[in-house]
Design goal:
This protein has 403 residues and is an alpha/beta fold. Helices cover 53% and strands 8% of the residues. It has 3 domains: 114 residues, no CATH class; 211 residues, Rossmann fold (3-Layer(aba) Sandwich), CATH 3.40.50; 56 residues.
Length: 403
Amino acid sequence: GLSCCVLVLLLLLGGSGSPGTTPPPRAPWAEEQGAVPEGGPWGRVRYETVKKHLGAVSALSKQYWQYLACKVWQEGCEEEEKQQEEREASPIPGWGFPLVGQDYLEILSAWYCSFGKCCETGDCRIINNITGLEADFSGQLHGQHLAKDVVVQAVQGFLQNPRPRKALVLSFHGWSGTGKNFVARMVASHLYRDGLRSDCVRVFVSLLHFPHHNYMDSYKAQLQRQISETLQRCRQALLIFDEAEKLHSNLLDAIKPFMAQHGSKGQVDQQRSIFVFLSNLGGNTINEVALDFWRAGRAREEISLELLEQRLRLELQEAAENSYAHSQLLRENLIDFVVPFLPLEYHHVKLCARDAFLARGLPYTEATLDQVAQMMVFVPKEEKLFSAQGCKSVPQRINYFLP
């Protein structure tokens, strides 16, 4: 009651500590988060710090109450503790005093957020940092001018729509190592506070999660349940399917209802979701276009999305006729954007090597970057233009140059 409110106010205004002790300095918030402009939103670090303090207050309150009760009514102490454990184990919460544990913490945290804005989205798991996504793409995604533009515009437009009629469905295509997984990871990192570890994000790898054709009915039921649970848990969910060309048609039947267009009525609280499919299908078509431009003396940046998308759609439709289930999504108009990933050239591999050295805080020289790039296999046999593995094994190859 009143004592709890006083305790929280003392915590927020003066910090914790016993009478006569010097309050801890307030500097750590500034050190952890940086300067916060006056009137600006309260950041995640400050919120987490106060939540941690509130958790300590909650635990102390519980211990103090039990200590006081046992001192005053010693005979009933064990019985009271037993009843308290039964109440906490009960699946149906009830009113009780004192309010302790996780319920206490969550209520106090919600009260804190009512006057101190914890996050812009209303859900502190969701950050939707499009500016950061663009910056990371510009600095770390090499040789993919089409993917940069399409992904940023598609995601930003979808998030700005207050009531989308359907889920956003992106289909990434290209050779292994060209950046499909990297982009998916960056999208997760800039839309969600915990990135791929967020409970708003699910990643499915076809051969890892659905390896046996004999169990497809079981996989289908599990997949439907997991997607439903994710959507119920999070109003903005991200679902990533790697090796999408290997998805069984039964599994796509489980996914399709979540991607289909919603009716306009009764959808005020419709969960918004983003589906990303990663596939090697279409990689050869993309490479042929890039090679034709190079042979014609034209820059790869001149390759337009319209040209590649037209050729990709033709190949994917043929793939659908050859039992590639993932391509059936295109025929049913469930895919919103086909995102091509171009093959990487020698200088792109050097940039990947530079990023790998920087990520590990290691020194490098231009000669070292050349040595890393020269370890890769380049195709076609005559031109030796494109890295056969993209940048996939570059972080491992720099181990050869460690002292």
